[in-house]
Design a protein that fits this description.
138 residues, alpha+beta, Glutaredoxin, two-stranded antiparallel ribbon, 4-stranded mixed β-sheet
């Protein structure tokens, strides 16, 4: 992900076009907030919001899945593991597929390819719950 340290307030909204997963491959556009450095923004945000989890996504040029669909699927997966306090951060990645990081208490797990990101939801949700319980003991 990009270096530089853009804060969330520096974000701009850009339309992101991506092919639908339907057989007709229709074009769809979703509006997500694109940051210069989604990793940094996500890490700073979870430090300020320790009871929440952040997901940063670098949208690769070869990705055929709309950003809002990625968010919808990952939110549903985390909810199945009892985690619903999630915020997503996006940046434009380079060539290739998208990558995903999970941010908890200022630490990041990843990068995971978009194809494998769901495989690590359970583990990340468990880590988040452990960290949340430990924070309550402090």
């Amino acid at each position: 992900m990009a270096a530089g340290g853009a804060q969330a307030q520096d974000a701009q909204l850009y339309p992101v076009a991506a092919a639908s997963l339907s057989p007709a491959a229709q074009e769809s556009v979703s509006s997500v907030q694109i940051l210069e450095d989604a990793d940094h923004a996500a890490n700073m945000w979870v430090v300020d919001n320790p009871s929440r989890l952040a997901v940063s996504v670098a949208i690769g040029r070869d990705t055929l899945v709309a950003a809002d669909k990625v968010e919808e699927v990952l939110r549903r997966d985390f909810a199945q593991h009892g985690v619903t306090n999630i915020k997503f951060f996006y940046e434009m990645g380079g060539s290739g597929d998208s990558t995903v990081f999970y941010h908890i208490d200022g630490n990041a797990w990843g990068p995971y390819s978009l194809a494998r990101a769901r495989d690590f939801v359970s583990e990340s949700a468990s880590q988040f719950k452990i960290n949340s319980q430990m924070a309550m003991l402090r």
